[in-house]
Amino acid sequence: MPIKKLFRLGLIILIPFILVFTQCLSSKKSEDPRGETYAGSATCVNCHKNIYSSYVHTAHFLSSGPAGINTVQGSFASKKNEQIFDPHTRVKMEKRKSGLYQVTYRDGKVVQSGRFDIFLEA
Length: 122
Fold this sequence. Notes:
Layout: H1 3-24, H2 41-44, H3 49-55, H4 59-62, E1 64-66, E2 82-86, E3 89-96, E4 99-106, E5 109-115, E6 118-120
Antiparallel strand pairs: 1-6, 2-3, 3-4, 4-5
């Protein structure tokens, strides 16, 4: 095979690989879904400490947040973490390494699984 053809073949294979690989290494920060103008609590506290300090204890502030073992209502303990709907269907709350889940079982097999990402205060 002539060197020119070999060189072209190498470029055809190498260029897409480089493009994909550089995307994986990109340090681009993910954008906040609320937009660029969203300041957030960390920004506000710098100038408004008194307001911020009283706000973080309100029901409005505490009404939702990241789901955790202490914020999701219900038990994750075996035998206390399930609801049986019929002889074939049960829903369990499960603690896994990757988070907290609500899992639907039908005849002992998982048919649906959803992670708790936020909690809502009742």
